[in-house]
Amino acid sequence: xxxxxxxxxxxxxxxxxxxxxxxxxxxxxxxxxxxxxxxxxxxxxxxxxxxxxxxxxxxxxxxxxxxxxxxxxxxxxxxxxxxxxxxxxxxxxxxxxxxxxxxxxxxxxxxxxxxxxxxxxxxxxxxxxxxxxxxxxxxxxxxxxxxxxxxxxxxxxxxxxxxxxxxxxxxxxxxxxxxxxxxxxxxxxxxxxxxxxxxxxxxxxxx
Length: 207
Prior knowledge:
Residues 1-17 form the signal peptide. This protein is α+β, with helices and mostly antiparallel strands.
């Protein structure tokens, strides 16, 4: 009877020990699974950080390029002649020595020549006026050739003026100027204007 009792206790102890071993094994398996999950999450986190850094870098690069375009130095000028002009030789450059605006310093009032500082589209505008009984024609010269012209005739009327404009694609270093084609009488001061806008056009296109 005592032997059976001891045997029963041994069996119970073995069962409890086996159950504890099983529980420990299950716990160990869970711990190992958690460790593998943590390792995978760590790898994923590192990949996500690397991707985020790359994306931020690309976004920053695109933003910098956009800012570079929008914050480009303005190119614009406005000039006129503040005295009467007469006896201008055919093909001669008409000097617009009175410069009121010269953003980018691309226009030379002494020579009357605009030098393109950077490639792009440029809008040129000009206006002329002549005395009663006379006529005139002036040309916009681009690349050394006539690109557009403006004519004014006051033969049968009082003072007459004519305006024109032209949108031109220029390359860096190209020269543009206003030249006389034929003129009789005097070209009036103040009214003869030569203006150029580059920055305004760029803002309209990119905004």
